[in-house]
Amino acid sequence: MRKLLLIGTMGALLALLVSACGGSSGGGGAISVAKEGESKTTANAACEEEPVAGGSLVYSRQLETVTLNPREIKNGNGDIFAQEMIFNGIVRNDPNGSDKVVPGLAEKWDISKDGLTYTFHLRPGLKYSDGSPLTAEDIAWNLEQFADPEVNISLAGVAQGMESVKATNDTTVVVKLEHPVAAFLYNLSIFPAFIVDKAKLESEGAAYWKHPVGTGPFIVKEFATGSHITFEKNPYYFEKGKPYLQTMRWNFVTNSNTRVLALKSGEAQMADGIPFTQVTSLQSEPNLGIEEVELPQAVILIANNRVKALGDVHVRRALSLALNREQLNETVFRGTGTVPNSVLMNFELDASDQEVAPFEFNLEKAKEEMAASKFPKGFSVKLQYPAGSDYFKQMSLLIQSELKEIGVEVKLEELESAAVAEKWFEGEFEMTFPFVGTSSDVPVPDEYAAFYALPAAELDGFKSYWTNKEAEGLVEKFISSTNEAGRKAEWKKIQELFNEEMPSLNVMDFPLINGHQSNICGTEANGLGVDQLQETWIAEKSS
């Protein structure tokens, strides 16, 4: 969700943010989650053999797919992750989980010394999933659509800085920028830049999105709104031999316990959003594997700086110092979380814990900050949180108890998740957990730095209503800098400034937790939490 000219509609933004890599319910006690291959319960020895093609898989998914139009997202990752199966961009995030951008439909590219011209060289013989050829002209047209805010209403600002696109021959596309954009390749890897079939879209209109033709690893076989989506292998996928699966069905199952039951019974071979409370018991199941999916994701507590008390920087620092994050991690996240050292979610450019210390729990310092504020005797504040998640209720109750120690009376208000998000967007809150999990579309901090610091992002400091001229200047420079070493140093300054100002509170960085039958191999996700199901295959079950 990047921007410098953010988004076309409130509904689209809410759908993107509400569902973005959402978390799961949790409870008390500490656990250690085994990752893929770390124990006999998480891997089958047969997965060490060569992949086998064929077979069908059922995946129990927590978020429904509502639309397959990547430029008009309606249900966050429910839509985005399905689109990742059908489409490709000219570049993509590394399937192996690094923070790098790697070739997609373009096999290589050149960047001019001034950072203003990108020349993409396409793979030879590219075809859509119906066997028709994909041309450089198709790519150029798609990138023009991507750059048009009236078409790309999902993330109009992803294309910020683009000046022109041209297919210079059958296999070359040249993009010119108005000014350097440090995250430009990352921007091109995101769903609004996916390549769709121009001819079929223009001839079929809205009907195209029910059975879209793309270049991804799978084809849509059936799309039953509210129930499931079924994919089958794309025989023209550019990675020869992949995907391995012949067919794959995603069942939309919002209830986490129902997903777990489907996984345990074998009704589903994969399930996402495993509750923290059930990880330990599932690890003891001999035929199941549990994986942590690390990605830039955090539980963010937004403090409305327009509320007089919360507009006081000493108060915001006191709130953070009063949070016992280690206890929250043990009690709520079962040890899977990480105490952050940044207001934002964890990014590759973040300074290390040795350079910038994680947020501390220190009641004495918290009381000193309160004493230095305009509200030394404390105040009362409302905290909104989303219903339907035991872990949010438990976390909110713990925070209520902890903030009472510094004279802050927290009144809890539980609302449906969509209502919480809408009130956040409209600024109708004092403190809020607007989303189950707040995550990034890219592994670099440009997107969220702009959300918080740049007025041009039109998001009012990510709805914290925080403004800071120094941060604005630093972020403007940062997002235009193409010197990687320089960007890391610049980001450290921004990270420290954000931490000093505390426009909102990062309560915890935390992973997604997914499960699978132990004979399902190649279940890894990329560095943004997207399943790489073109790599998935089915092995013989252990005897």
3D structure, described in words:
- This protein has 16 helices and 21 strands.
- With 543 residues, it is of the alpha+beta class.
- The strands form five sheets. Strands 8-9-10-1-11-19-12 form a seven-stranded mixed beta sheet, sandwiched between helices.
- Helix 1 packs across helix 12 (417-426).
- Residues 1-12 and 18-42 have low confidence and may be disordered.
- The chain has helices at 10-19, 76-86, 136-147, 184-188, 198-204, 256-265, 279-283, 313-321, 325-331, 363-372, 390-404, 417-426, 446-453, 460-463, 469-480, 484-501; strands spanning 56-61, 91-93, 101-103, 106-111, 117-122, 162-169, 172-177, 218-224, 228-233, 247-252, 270-271, 288-293, 297-303, 379-386, 408-415, 431-432, 438-439, 504-509, 512-517, 520-521, 537-538.
Fill in the keyword field for this structure.
single chain, 543 residues, alpha+beta, Dipeptide-binding Protein, domain 3, 6-stranded mixed β-sheet, 28% helix
Provide a brief overview of the structure:
With 543 residues, this protein is an alpha+beta fold. Helix content is 28%, strand content 20%. The chain has helices at 10-19, 76-86, 136-147, 184-188, 198-204, 256-265, 279-283, 313-321, 325-331, 363-372, 390-404, 417-426, 446-453, 460-463, 469-480, 484-501, and strands at residues 56-61, 91-93, 101-103, 106-111, 117-122, 162-169, 172-177, 218-224, 228-233, 247-252, 270-271, 288-293, 297-303, 379-386, 408-415, 431-432, 438-439, 504-509, 512-517, 520-521, 537-538.
